Amino acid sequence: MTPPQYRGRVPAIPLLLVATLAGCGTSEPVRTSYVMGSDPRPQPVQSSLLGKPVVEVRPALLPDYLDTTDIITRKADGSVVASRTGRWGERLSVGMTQALALSLVARLPDLAGTSTRPENAPWRQVLVDVETFGVGPDGRSVLTAVWSVRAGRGDVVIAKQRTTLVEPVSAPDDAALVAAMSREADSLAAAIAISVRSSDSTVAEPQDRSGIATRLARRAARQRDAAADREPDR
Fold first, then answer.
1. CA separation, residue 124 to residues 90, 97, 141, 152, 158 (Å)
2. Which tens digits make up the pLDDT trace of 70-107?
3. Most buried by CB count within 10 Å: which residue of 59, 81, 209, 216?
4. Which letter does DSSP use for residue 62 in this model?
5. For residue 193, what is the domain's CATH number?
6. What is the CA angle 180-85-38, rounded to 5?
7. Could you please report the per-residue DSSP string of 166-231?
8. Residue 95: enclosing H or E segment and its boundaries?
9. 186 is in which domain, residue-wise?
10. Helices (H) and strands (E) in the chain, counts
11. How far apart are CA 225 and CA 221, in angstroms?
């Protein structure tokens, strides 16, 4: 006979087993992580960056619904759906900025491209404001962005354009979608590289602000000395 204190109780181990089995039945599939950009074959090349003009790629601006680690698809009714099988390895704005910088470096080997803010003012600065990026209801990937090339810290706008790129998606899966978006980012970098190159027929040497300040101080000293020499003796 079961003692009164144990009546109505269910053993804990079977309950734990049932909960574990129920959790397994509703678990989400593991999502594959992807990185924006093409997959270039690395070459064993080492070159100095000293003395090269710096092109700074500022962080890309994206709409809030896109700036996430989810791989987003837009539906015909305007709704967006996140992939259940794939995700970005980093926020899309971070991945796109890095992809643009790497693509510019590959196209402009005589320049030093970077996506981090340099200590001194760069020779050129690239700003990208993305309006649309991703696969729509027609199964094609569309990238629309307003971008500009500026001198120094952005005081002077050298070029500004609005570009729309369309790429077919070869298959209804995450890998094909990522490949199409990466091709669009690379094409955008190609257009930007043309403007960076044509912004000056000859690549100007980066200016050292400390050197400029020294030269200005020497010039001011010479002007003071000349003014003193012109004054009549008292």
1. 26, 15, 29, 6, 9
2. 999 999 998 999 999 999 999 999 999 999 999 999 99
3. 59
4. -
5. 3.40.50.10610
6. 30
7. EEE-SSSSHHHHHHHHHHHHHHHHHHHHHHHHHT-SSPPPPPPHHHHHHHHHHHHHHHHHHHHHHS
8. helix 92-107
9. 49-199
10. 4, 8
11. 6
